Amino acid sequence: MVELIVDYIRVLMFFLREANPVFVGSIVFVFGAVFGSFINVLNYRLPLEMDVVFKPSFCPKCKRNIKWYHNIPIISYLYLGGKCAYCRESIAIGYFLIELLTAFSFLAFYLLYGVTWDFIVLCLFFIISLPVLIIDFRYHIIPDELSIGGAVVGLFLGFVHTFIGFDNNTNITISMIDSIWGVVVGLLIFGGIYVSSLLVFRKEGMGLGDVKFAATIGAFLGSSPSIVAFLLSFLYGSFLGLIIMIFKRLKNMKKIKTISHLKNLNISSDYVSSIVMVYVYQNQVDELRSSYIAFGPYMVLGAWTSIFFAHEMIGFFVGEII
Ligand SMILES: [Zn+2]
User: I want to staple 176 with a disulfide (CB 3.0 to 4.6 A). Which of 158, 218, 249, 279 is the partner?
Assistant: First the structure.
């Protein structure tokens, strides 16, 4: 049974490699749009702990099920003018953009690597990492389905590569041993940070979701590239974190200016002081909210940079040292 499936995949890959690239590229684009639509489903349903496979698509506003011909990726959004077919409620443009981004990304992977095992690995990591980026950014959580599920998928890909081997010449795909080492490295580094911040600061320095997602990155990238990915994620985190902090300060400056402007107008001091109180309170709320940094998005960005540039980076730094 397994041999039959393996033979079938080999024949399919052979056929796709020999076929007209424009034809294959179009198929890849359509597949990308369909998976983009699936990524939208994951983004919406995983944080709400809803079924992602069997429940049919529905409008979040009027709850009516969406007909299949109103649910065609990319096309339906344009055809319906970005509105629900029943209640005419606007559908967020994000859904459309994610379908488009996924389709173009899959096409780019195909143009870079052709019909190879690397291509499949990249597409699967995309389907796992984009929802992590978006869900962690919005809700400050990384669902286990993506982190633990993703690690299992990564290990399985390593297993298939080692014991079946559809391709021998690969740039990205790793062996099962390296995949296991990647998981170990991810858990050690992020688990270490998690435990030591608990011991030193008596609070979580990062969520457990980040620790689990580190294992996912390790399983897909292997040990050395995932170390590069983690270092980059810390770099991105501190750099973008700094920019976000500056923006917040600038926003607060505006508020302070508004308040001092009111003072000049000689409005009753009670009115001003109540505004100041609201402002101070809001600031505290903002601070409380930002005390936990969603680190997942930076990990995703670090992982993708590492996938394309880790070998050059490692070569560059090792070359410098020697
Ligand atoms: Zn509706």
Answer: 158
